[in-house]
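Now for my pick.
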Amino acid sequence: MERLQHLPHVHIQPEHHVIHLAMTSEERQKVRRKLTASDGMELALELPTGTTLHVGQVLFQQENTVYVVDAAPEDVLLVRPRDLQEAAQVGHMIGNLHRDVDISEDGIAALWDAPLERKLEHAGVDYVRTSRPFRGKPVGEHSH
C-alpha cells in the first residue's frame, strides 16, 4: 500500500499508462481514506486537511503508470438552454442556490436536488435528470 501525504507534481506524458480513479464530487473532498485502483494498487490518502482533489490530478506515479483522479457518474440535472437569455437565467437560479455547475457541449449540469428541480420546472426550462460524470463541487461547498 502506498501512503500519499502530498500530491506529486507530475505531468501526464504520452508514454504513461493512466489508471483512472473515478470519484464523486463529495469523494474528491475526502483526503484521508484508502483507495483501490482497477489494477489492484492500494493508495492510502493522508493528505493535509483542506486539500481538494481535482479531475485530471495525478495522485501517484510508479514507473510509467500514473494514477489520476476522474469524475464518477452522479445524479444530475442536465439543462439545455434554448438561448443565451435562458442560459443566464439558469446560471442565476443555480447560483442563488449556491450550487456548482459542470458546463459541456451537452449543456449545464448541476447535482440533483429537489429544490433545484422544482425551480427549473417552474421556470419552464428544458432539463433531464440523468447520471453522468460531474466535475464540479459537491452541494454544501460554497462555490462562487
Summary: Residues 2-71 form a domain with the HSP40/DNAj peptide-binding domain fold (CATH 2.60.260.20). The beta strands are 2-4, 17-23, 32-36, 42-46, 58-62, 65-71, 73-79, 102-104, 107-111, 127-133. The helical segments are 84-96, 114-123.
